Amino acid sequence: MKALQLLDVGQVALLEIPVPDIKADELLIRTGATTICTSDLNDIRENPFDIAFPITMGHEGAGTVVQVGSLVQGFSIGDRVATHPVHPCGSCAACRRGWGHLCTAMEHFAINRPGTFAEYYPVRHDRARHIPDDIPFTAAALAEPISVCLEALAQACVPAQGTLLILGDGPFGVLMARLEASASSNISPVKTVLAGWQDFRLAFARDAVTLNTYGVRDPYVMLRAEADELGYDAVILAVGSAAAVRLGLSLLRPRGRFVVFSALPGETPVDLFRVHLDELAIVGACSDEDRFDDAVARLGDAELRMEELITHTFPLARHEEALALAETGHDRALKVAFAFQAGL
Ligand SMILES: [Zn+2]
Ligand SMILES: [Zn+2]
Asked: Is the pLDDT of residue 262 over 60?
């Protein structure tokens, strides 16, 4: 089969490799679609997760079951499924506390098990969910990005009628804004403000207040005007920028929550005096696995129309073009997918 592999930092190659064997508790998926994530681009650039090369890339995927392990029940050949990259071990101290996504012995697509940028990929059966026939695979590939966004929103703990500021109009910022601001969302209604630099991206955040701060000398004033007198209840960092950390913390109300969603490697200066004085909370949100069912339900929510976020699809053979487009966001690209003929 064809697989897009990361051979070393900066070295991506489309190779012909054997179709992976599956274990007794796994399914083999014929890939229908798989989306490019910001973290795939980070992996190519700097390998922050210490991936052991070579590895088949990609972690956001959906497709058709073509082989079922001998111990698996509830799945049949031909089933259409969305998959989740996080494979918790189920027995370590973190798993025993119910924190599967923080498992210390985790397997994860494209980190230490084969990823989804291939014609076929294996998945453990508990990491797959059936999807309705009317959901295209391109949208179903968003199940995991939706899961992690739901986790970040949960970490924000915004009270009903409260105010939430999302800094960054990349695919995740837009996705969070859409989930939180949608009238069909079962999260308590809050005022959602999305700040970014590109009008075309902000336009995807239907129902949210959107503010373009590009070139604005003092974005604080512009963003502060949308919060109540005390400031925002929560700010989610959806852009990897130290300046955004400073800005976000300054916009919080006392006892507000700052959610670090974007990867910002290394040390970032933070005014801890403000944290002390105003009893601020700084919390992380990176991954998630137990919001998978909720995420799959959102895929079927017609009002959310998640498929609109997939702006471009490419065959795997055009990977250079697809990765470059995802990196630059040119041509009004938001989420870029690889689609496979066999899966459509
Ligand atoms: Zn991702
Ligand atoms: Zn574990």
From this structure: yes
Distance between Cα 223 and ligand 1 center (Å)? 28
CA 254 to ligand 1 center in whole angstroms: 32
Taking only Cα atoms into account, the Rg of the chain, rounded to an integer number of angstroms, comes to: 20
CA of 262 to the centre of ligand 2 (A): 24
Q: What is the rounded CA–CA span in Å between residue 112 and residue 128?
A: 18
Q: Give me the CATH topology for the region 147-284.
A: Rossmann fold (3.40.50)
User: How does strand 163-167 pair with strand 232-237?
Assistant: parallel
| Domain positions in the chain | 2-144+288-343, 147-284
Same fold? 2-144+288-343, 147-284: no
pLDDT in tens, 193-224: 999 999 999 999 988 999 999 999 999 999 99
- Return the CATH fold of 2-144+288-343: Quinone Oxidoreductase; Chain A, domain 1 (3.90.180)
pTM: 0.94
Give me 147's structure tokens: 């899961």
Assess whether pLDDT exceeds 50 at residue 309.
Answer: yes
Of the listed ligands, the closest to the CA of 89 is 2
Q: How many angstroms is it from 84 CA to the middle of ligand 1?
A: 10
Q: Given this model, what pLDDT does residue 185 score?
A: 58
Who contacts 99 (Cβ-Cβ below 8 Å, separation ≥6)?
A: none
CA 67/CA 315 separation, integer angstroms = 23
Strands 232-237 and 252-260: parallel
Instruction: Please report the pLDDT score of residue 183 as a whole number.
Output: 61
**How is residue 138 annotated by DSSP?**
H
Q: What is the pLDDT of residues 38-90, one digit of tens each?
A: 999 999 999 988 999 999 999 999 999 999 999 999 999 999 999 999 999 99
Distance, in Å, from the CA atom of 272 to the CA atom of 280, rounded to the nearest integer, reads 9
Q: What is the spatial distance between Cα 57 and Cα 9, in angstroms, rounded to a whole number?
A: 12
Distances from the Cα of 269 to the Cαs of 159, 218, 224, 241, in angstroms? Answer: 28, 20, 22, 11
Using a pLDDT cut of 70, give the percent of the chain over it. 97
